Amino acid sequence: MEQTTTYEQIGGDATVARLCDRFYALMDSVPQFAELRAMHPDDLQGSRDKLYMFLSGWFGGPDLFVEKFGHPRLRARHMPFAIGVKERDQWVACMVLAMEDVGIEEPVRAKLLLNFFNTADFMRNREG
User: Domain containing 23: what range?
Assistant: First the structure.
């Protein structure tokens, strides 16, 4: 029995791109994500592109981030930013809305939510 990757289940490259576009559009426009937005540069394109490249590989598609930048070293790359519970929760909430908006189906969305939460929680580097 052949297993499909998350990348294939959600619709491949086009969905990953739409997810990243929607994630950063929400972050940029929803007041609830103001602290999260403040941690990013004025121009979100570079951040969006890195998330897109990372998620492509993380979902089981082309490993674009590793090909361009090497090992993700997520925790080290996020260490310069003060990330606590509030920032983690804003990131996860923004991603949940983005997944819903681009039509990722519930069973896959639930699995991704758990993985996103655990990864975002691992990025925390301060209390609160």
Answer: 10-123
